[in-house]
Queue: 2 jobs
Job 1
Amino acid sequence: MIENIDFEKKTDEELVAIVLENQGVFSYLVNRYKDKLLRYIRRISNVGLEEAEDMLQNIFIKVYLNLNDFDDSLKFSSWIYRIAHNEVIDNYRKRKARPQLLDIDIQESQIRELAGETDLFEEVARQELKQEISQALSQIDLKYQEMIILKYLEEKDYQEISDIIKKPLGTVASRMNKAKAELKKFLNANHKL
Amino acid sequence: MENEIFNKEILEKLQELKIKPRARWHFLLKNYAIWVSGVFALLIGAAAVSVMIYLGSYNDFAIRQDINKSFGEMLLLTLPYFWLIFLGLFIFIVYYNLKHTKTGYRYSIGLIITVAVITSIFLGGIFYAAGLGQELDEVLGQKAPLYGEMINPRVDFWSNPEEGRLIGVIVDQIGDEEFVLIDKDQQEWLVKIKGDDFVIPPQAGGPLRLIGEKKSDNIFEVFKVMPMMPGRGFFKRMNGGPHPPVPGNPRMLERIEVNY
């Protein structure tokens, strides 16, 4: 019988080593990342819950299948987000259509940070701002949309984003600037309407 | 989503599909294969650089006035286009492979290409010093199709008697002032020496470059003779065949012994 307390104290990397010996322990890794990844999938692809769960299941199967490919050259969270990112991109290509409007789960602190970064108008009510951010995010290019989501909603740093999307740090930085500029452009345009 | 149900579904699916983690050697092998082919591409690029250095070390800029070409014309005529494209192709393969290593994505295209080019030049210099550039040029000269047209256009450049340039192999010496030369198309020329501006004395064997004037279909008056280095392998592919005889001289092709 597996003792919960033992495995919950383990780091991701330690759990990976144990999972390779004991498949049952994989559920601890699933528990740690299930909600985060489900939220990430829905934020970036705006698919329904059922489809998002199917994607999530595929992601965990791929994670398990490729566990031996993981090493300490990057954080486990970056590695699993990378697999999720690839799954979302694959799904996006299969559908060949962008979601019309993202329904993004954004917390108050994240709205504040995004508003600060993009010099957003303070007079706009929080709820209205949330809708405007969702709308503007839906309008910008997928590669910029993902930058904003990873940085401000998933709260990843530049190195983690670089490891997730497999691009150099310089590219991440320039894309982030472009993403913020694009977001601001659409926010301002939408706000004037 | 209920945690327990989702976890159970995942584990059941893993068992149902009998999914096991892929073996570590599978990933290691893939990674090594990418590295090995990248290093191999880098070495081939370096070999191309060694040939370019070899070709460049025998450039014809010093004699451009003798052949009535400007510096720009000489540059355009002698740039090793084939090898530059070849190097570019293998630098791209190095870039592609490095990008597909586990951490290759962390490096920018500019950095990877700069490092690959510098490494190719450095290794190419070593290969050149070891004689690889000359060796490759000679082997390709003997065997490669389109050698004179693409790989080393100097062979074609120097095969232009109308403009006073001729290359070939001496097959017979006729007194002190005449010799017979077979050009790259296996045509015999009676070459008459005019003046004494010889870089090297003509002697049977290795291929030579001549600067002079075409006097008739098979007679060439020469005032400068130089050895031919890049492209010399090309003349080793010569063999007997039909060719017009030199007027007033017996057919000599059967006596060719290309041995240098």
Job 2
Amino acid sequence: MSQTKKSAAADIDIVPKGSDEAWAYSKIIKDHFFKPRNLILDAKDVKGYNGLGMVGSPACGDMMKVWLWIDEKEDKIKEMKWQTFGCGSAISATSMLSVMATENGGMKLDDALEIKAQHITERLGGLPVRKIHCSVLGDKALRSAINNYFIKSGQKDRVIKEQVRIIDKQAKVTDHDIEEAVLEGAQNLEEVQKKTKVGIGNPSVIPEVEQLIRFYTEKYFG
Amino acid sequence: MNKHIYLDHASTTPTDPRVVKAMEPYWNEKYGNPSSLYRLSLASKQAIIDSREKIAKVLNCQPDEIIFTGGGTESINLAIKGSVWAAKKPVHIITSKVEHPAVLNSCQRLNSQGHKLSILPVDRYGFVSLEDVKKAIKDDTLLVSIMMANNEIGTIQPIQEIGVYIEKLNKERVEKGLDKIYFHTDACQAAGALDIDVKKLHVDMITINGSKIYGPKGVGVLYLKPGTKLIPIIDGGGQEKKMRSGTENVPGIVGMAEALDIAYQEKEKENKRQIELRDWFIEQLLKTIDKSILNGDPKKRLPNNINISFLDIEGEAVLLYLDEIGVMASTGSACTSSSLEPSHVIRALGAPYEVAHGSIRFTMGKSTTKKDLQHVLENFPEIVKKLRQASPANVDMAEVEKTFVDAERKILDL
């Protein structure tokens, strides 16, 4: 991480032309931002993928969508394409991630599941400190696409679940429980409530539950 | 490719060469401390007297009603904390949701020290309403602080209307034995373009600073109507009628006065020029780029301010592309703020987060030409197209509109 701190020394993102100061973003980040690798320009044309993941939303400032072509025999990522709504760091981080996942003949799925935000940051030559959070969605998007592949290919036991967050304090229901319910086939609020009792005594959480149901449905079955 | 188009004048302005020239003698030639008694110091003292007179002319006030400070933020802190501390009891403060952090954070500091605070909402164009001011006033209200024009979206507030009301109300309050309410306005963004005659505005305090009006950075002014009681926030040798201790920043004060004087002379012509450019530029951008929303009011906005949200893309990424074509602008996206929260001003309009993340602010200056804006227009649609192609987002405009309409706009009592 020392590398990160060093290149983030200047807390400025854009430096006026004609100035001698260095861009606070590394050359690698700039390169991936202006020349993104494996970017999909028209999502309608994408065919033949067997893993699809999406995380974030325009409201939270970052949103990433990842398509994977996984070789079943080798259990390796052969191709990864993506789209990102976000700042320079987010776009560069997704681009770099797509390189990492597919270089040297493709990454083993078990290794790809281990990719953390800091591995991407390191490969980018560091990010300004307050920008690190922008790269954290990339690895989540990749995991979500791999999970989607696991579901589709009948390997439900390999699905990795993200950290747990309590949604309904009264019913003690977490986002994990809702994810589980969706995985077990619940498709709407009623069906999720049958399995979890979420929001029944606490209707104020229902909008969030409905959002999560949409999110997980799209994640696994979209 | 070596263009240098600065469209961030609301952030700060370059110093006018005439201002630099006016300041020049006060660095090495007339450097005396105005408080000393020899001839060298008299020149410094005289320079401050002259500067005060120049500024008083623009503000339509007496020279001794002007306090020089170390900048806009300091003037605001002095106005807000100084007046509340002088009350020597818990009081009530009113401000708005779209103020500069100097105002909001000063008010919040006082709130954490036991003073009550009401934060007024704004409508979708960023206007504070007199009705809300009336509603928020309580018996123990001591201070109302509303900005004259907004730094992000340029919306010009009805300061005169509020000022007239508070002045009238104060007469009734005095009869009832209640404290007078002070009305402060932060005119940092407004001073270069609008009429800041304190008699017309009916304000008790007004803050202006040098760095937004082609003057030097680090100099501010606080106008104090006679009878406004303040406790200084900086103690020391008692300069500036004991309101702001510290050896006077003579070159800065001279520069501030010169800058304000120039603005006063030239603003009418310059405003006309900028308004024409502004309206044309806004029209072109909204016309050529779909899913774009103007932030702020189309007409009652600062002549140099253009703030538009482009949906499905994020502001910082736009700025990086703009930098590539030599254009400097700013954004309300969370990604460029240290707090990682998107613009509180655009959120206050009732806009969803998406609109704040995609907002781009261009603020013109005296040197901005139509050619500069044409350069932006030639490249901008392509930048937006590229980023939209790479973006999985597809925000529904109808839902954005609904968020604006449904936004809760109530007075926040803290």
